[in-house]
Design a protein that fits this description.
Layout: E1 8-13, H1 19-27, E2 32-34, H2 41-51, H3 57-62, H4 64-70, H5 73-78, H6 82-96, H7 110-121, H8 127-146, E3 152-156, H9 164-170, E4 174-180, H10 183-193, H11 203-222, E5 231-235, H12 236-241, H13 243-253, H14 260-269, H15 292-295, H16 298-314
Length: about 325
């Protein structure tokens, strides 16, 4: 394994919570180098070794199209061996390797990726350890190719929140920024994109359930004394209310120096109103706090309360008040 060490910062949280905005704010610091796309490294590399080997035949048959596309016919009938999963990881890389797509191509080109996969497979007999080795090798390769020693690496994949414990245990030089937003505004954001972006078409029930899972994961990790000092939770509502103050706290947490002029410049440069591709049908929307009050139907609001009312209340997201407070 590589002996390269450098600070790492991972931005996580429920999708549509403002993680892209937080990432652009942090990336505005001159001592930060950001991965240009969401890598989904843990979902694409680590997670398959946890979930696929024990997948029952009935489940495999229900997912037969995806299995044939990525893995071929053998695991469909006989189950997944590590070699099948590695073949699927290579296939996923090829499927996602095009401009404006998330994926591992943000960390390494095709030739380098295949070399690093082979290197990771030699390091351990445990496939899950090999998977984590590959993620480290990919991050190291990307960082080294920037030729910017002394900088902090920034990576944003919202659903990496599921693997915060693995990230922090694997990388002693890493910290995590968790973005938290009112789950109903998350649902409103999903619903606004659903007609133009297939990935967003998960419905209010799907969106609020995903929000609840992400909130539960975040709280679980922040409750662990060995992890909590390396996790900084920022509320989207705080960020909207006083972006400069929230950014100063973020930079302090990440051990990044700052001055008021620098903060003001970054806040102006990342103002959502200056982003050209924003608004209806775009990934970047107006980002209003409390948008759910106008955007969600009474049925959707009731559904949010039914599925996650207790978690909304725990975080201070009442029906009539939008909190501005720090965690």
């Amino acid at each position: 394994m590589s002996n390269v060490t450098y600070p790492k910062l991972f931005v996580v949280g429920c999708p549509r919570s403002g993680t892209s905005w937080v990432t652009s704010l942090i990336a505005g610091h001159p001592e930060v180098v950001a991965v240009p796309v969401e890598t989904h490294a843990y979902r694409l590399i680590y997670e398959p070794f946890l979930t696929l080997p024990d997948q029952p035949l009935a489940h495999r048959l229900r997912s037969w199209k995806g299995i044939l596309r990525r893995y071929g016919p053998k695991p469909l009938l006989l189950g997944f061996a590590p070699a099948d999963i590695w073949r699927g990881i290579l296939r996923d890389y090829d499927i996602l390797n095009h401009p404006h797509s998330h994926g591992l191509h943000g960390l390494a080109n095709t030739a380098d990726f295949r070399v690093l996969v082979a290197a990771a497979q030699k390091n351990s007999k445990l496939a899950s350890v090999q998977a984590e080795d590959l993620i480290q090798l990919l991050l190291d390769r990307f960082f080294q190719q920037q030729n910017c020693p002394g900088l902090t690496l920034l990576e944003k994949t919202p659903l990496h929140i599921r693997y915060v414990d693995r990230i922090l245990q694997r990388f002693p030089d890493a910290k995590v920024v968790e973005v938290i937003r009112d789950g109903r505004d998350v649902c409103a954001s999903y619903n606004a994109l659903a007609t133009t972006q297939p990935w967003a078409n998960i419905g209010t029930a799907g969106a609020i359930r995903q929000w609840r899972r992400c909130i539960d994961w975040g709280e679980r990790y922040r409750a662990q004394s060995d992890l909590s000092p390396r996790i900084h939770a920022v509320r989207y509502e705080d960020l909207k209310s006083d972006t400069a103050a929230s950014l100063k706290h973020l930079f302090d947490f990440a051990n990044l120096s700052w001055n008021d002029a620098q903060i003001s410049h970054i806040v102006r440069a990342t103002d959502i109103n200056s982003i050209r591709r924003r608004g209806k049908g775009q990934y970047v929307r107006k980002g209003a706090v409390g948008d759910w009050k106008q955007s969600l139907s009474p049925e959707d609001i009731s559904l949010c309360q039914e599925i996650a009312g207790d978690r909304l209340a725990d975080l201070g997201y009442s029906e009539t008040r939008i909190p501005v407070q720090s965690i």
